[in-house]
Request: fold
Amino acid sequence: GENVEQHPSTLSVQEGDSAVIKCTYSDSASNYFPWYKQELGKGPQLIIDIRSNVGEKKDQRIAVTLNKTAKHFSLHITETQPEDSAVYFCAAMNTGFQKLVFGTGTRLLVSP
Amino acid sequence: EAQVTQNPRYLITVTGKKLTVTCSQNMNHEYMSWYRQDPGLGLRQIYYSMNVEVTDKGDVPEGYKVSRKEKRNFPLILESPSPNQTSLYFCASSFRDRGPFRNTEAFFGQGTRLTVV
Reply:
């Protein structure tokens, strides 16, 4: 089955810096890759996603890149702000089976 | 407001005492699933349901049961809870995937923190 690895497990940056979180997946049939942000005491919330037919997607300060050949995808956050502090999860899914497989999470801390 | 509602939010129980965690969604989603979240392990799927009366095991189904009698509800049942089921549980729902132009976003509930002593 699918296996998703996520790095780093913790990431500390200064406000205004960029943050990058990387994930690799094992199943070449996976074709949907969402990223979730989980704030303390809340459920995961989708922040951006990408399908396998595109290589990059941007939404304001966040972007996701996908390399299908290498089977890895990354989340990029620019001009980080303290409110970006949270746990971020990547996930992979083969939409034929509709099962999301999650990475182990990255705790991002943005210091003022 | 579109949402997934779980109850209760917090629960402390004793080993062996049956309990049910409820999950309800108001978005007419076909697909619903349960996850447990443990430190260092991320979210792992327990059970999922593609539609009413259709359920199947996820990665960690042992010790759990589910039912899907109505489209909006997907309760998680622990018949005889044990301490290793102490965890944070999330219910999620989404539309069935219908290709690249159909929104497959999964919406998560607020979570249920369960402690079994």
